[in-house]
Design goal:
Layout lengths: L8 E4 L3 H11 L3 E8 L2 H7 L5 E9 L2 E9 L17 E6 L2 H6 L12 E2 L5 E6 L5 E6 L1
Parallel strand pairs: 1-4, 5-8
Antiparallel strand pairs: 2-3, 3-4, 6-7, 7-8
GO molecular function: dioxygenase activity; lactoylglutathione lyase activity; metal ion binding; methylmalonyl-CoA epimerase activity
GO biological process, one term: L-methylmalonyl-CoA metabolic process
Protein name: Catechol 2,3-dioxygenase
């Protein structure tokens, strides 16, 4: 068996262009690549008949974030909370959480202002345009 290596963190979105704009403009990620994949092998691999995926790969300071918009789209699920089984979030570090928070556009949904946890870590959570959770911590 070959050794596994981390390659990317993937997020399915309903509007690829809007999500790329958020991750690039709000979080400052570089767009590495954009491409489309379809065909029988892809449909079989993802388990969705007739699937086409529009992809964007972004660099989040060494973490490759893969955004993918599928056609056909699946059903939306209710918005997750961090304490739900199976919940996911992306975590990123900044030097100053308060400055990061103050610089967010007014239309970005946050769960709270930055907080200092019992462990001494300063954190805040926000949602991307698809309601996915993004944690920003001071490190």
């Amino acid at each position: 068996m070959s050794d596994l290596r981390a390659h990317h963190v993937g997020i399915t979105v309903s509007d690829l262009d809007r999500s790329v704009e958020f991750y690039a403009d709000v979080l400052g990620f570089d767009v590495l690549d954009r491409f489309t994949v379809s065909g029988d092998a892809f449909s079989t691999a993802v388990g969705v008949d007739g699937a086409t995926g529009r992809f964007a790969h972004l660099d989040g300071d060494g973490v490759r974030v893969e955004l993918v918009e599928y056609d056909p789209q699946g059903e939306d699920v209710p918005t997750e909370t961090v304490n739900q089984s199976g919940a996911k979030h992306l975590g990123f570090a900044v030097d100053d959480v308060d400055s990061f928070y103050a610089g967010l556009p007014s239309d970005v949904e946050t769960l709270s202002e930055p907080q200092t946890t019992e462990s001494g870590t300063r954190i805040c959570f926000l949602r991307d345009p698809e309601s996915n959770l993004v944690e920003v911590l001071e490190a």
